[in-house]
Amino acid sequence: MTSHLQTTRRHFFGITGGLAAGALLANRPAVAFHSALERPTFATIGLRNQGWHITSKSFKFADFVALADVDANVLAENVDKVQKNQGKKPDSYKDYREILARKDIDAVMIATPDHWHTKIAVEAMYAGKDVYCEKPLTLTIAEGKLIERVVKETGRVFQVGTMQRTESEQRFLLAVALVKHGRIGKVTKVTCGINGMEASPVIPEVPVPNGLDWDFWLGPAPKVAYRALPELREGYGGGVPLYSNAHYSFRNWHEYSGGKLTDWGAHHVDIACWAIGASDTGPSLIQPKSYKLPVPYKDGHPTVADQYNAATNFEILAKMPNDIEMIITSEGDNGIMFEGTEGRFFVNRGKITGKPVEELKDKPLPDGAIEEVYGGKVSENHTANFIDAMVSRKQPISDVWTHNRMLEICHLSNIAMRVGRELKWDPTKREIIGDDQANSFLSRPSRAGFEIEKRA
């Protein structure tokens, strides 16, 4: 029987590449967009940092008619920025459901904190919208299975924001091509360096900032007090408290995310699995070789609520098919080291280095090798690939099935550290073998009043 994943892969090789704005106007798409000019109409839900990033790089391909955010200040700021960039003011909402109720919107881009992704994405698909959702797609493995079912049920196009598959000057595509063309022989080991993080000091309860609907921000997560310290974060994601249980720092709490394992892990483990041909399977074993949790845990749960609780340092071994060892580590350079019987090389967003790369000067890859990896002409950016898929009604390069398979490794790594032992994984049944306690972390209930609604 042909699996849906196999069907999706055939779709990859039917993708013709990204469409420039002019091509969108010149060629009538397979489906009619709502815009009179046959440009798709988009809305973005969740606007801080990545929300603005994916919106701003999509102006040339789509018209943004609506924005939503639970922080009134962030919402107003981004409405102004969108208006200045596209010359037309988008409508604004605190409640994303008002966007889903509109019939004139073709697709939504979701860049909320991770614990909101699944609820909004599922409801958007049932509302007839195509979806572009930031990584990591899910908070739990069960959420990934749900999204897969709804994509299949509704036939919606769904792009995950793992843009390394498209962008970064094709370095990661070259890395995948090098492995697939045997330039390091048989792969024996892949090391994903994803950085660690610092533990936090005690973070006190403080009044909720003006303009932020804290209860709505929490949404499906347990109801807790807002916490923050006065010091502000600088650089990317700056202008918010450096230490808090919201804003940029939500990534460091298991209630809302999965620490570095699902932040950078969602990027590099994805490329690693793609290269070694493990995008439709998973590990047999997850072993936490060393790790440090910043707070005490009991029965897999943190025992204090006023400090970050995701792992700060770690080295995880995942035993992958074909006797390949995958190491996920907080040490060393951020990037991926591929090692095989005939060489090794390293790749990250800024470089790709090693003897197999140097040898390309005299022994280049066959013509079309990069396009073969990508499944057609490489799009100019990740949104272009998404819109191409909206036209063809075929799943894009970062589909939910391959994303969930690799993200299971990241989720399992966090579970292994939380319960303090190695986990045996059945990649066919997609469950942990012989460990009821660990299996209990594969899903998580939603807070009352924030359950997923099947119809918008």
Structure commentary:
It is a single chain. With 456 residues, the chain is an alpha/beta fold. The chain folds into two domains: 4-168 and 377-399, NAD(P)-binding Rossmann-like Domain (Rossmann fold); 187-336 and 402-442, Dihydrodipicolinate Reductase, domain 2 (2-Layer Sandwich). 32% of the residues lie in helices and 17% in strands. The protein contains 16 helices and 17 strands. The strands form three sheets. It has a nine-stranded mixed sheet with strand order 15-14-13-7-12-11-8-16-17. A hairpin with a 2-residue loop joins strand 9 and strand 10. Helix 8 packs parallel to helix 11 (265-276). The longest helix has 20 residues, at 400-419. It starts with a helix and ends in a 17-residue tail after the last helix. Residues 1-29 have low confidence and may be disordered.
Question: How many domains, as an integer?
Answer: 2
The CATH architecture classification of the largest domain is 2-Layer Sandwich
Look at the helices and sheets and give the structural class: alpha/beta
* Cα-based radius of gyration, to the nearest Å: 21 Å
Biggest beta sheet summary = 9 strands, mixed
Total E-strand runs: 17
Shape: globular
In terms of DSSP E residues, the strand content is: 15-25%
Instruction: Outline the low-pLDDT stretches.
Output: 1-29
Strand order of the largest sheet: 15-14-13-7-12-11-8-16-17
What do the pLDDT scores average to? 93
Short summary:
The chain contains 16 helices and 17 strands.
Based on the model shown, name its key terms.
456 residues, alpha/beta, Rossmann fold, Dihydrodipicolinate Reductase, domain 2, 2 domains, nine-stranded mixed β-sheet, six-stranded parallel β-sheet, globular, disordered N terminus
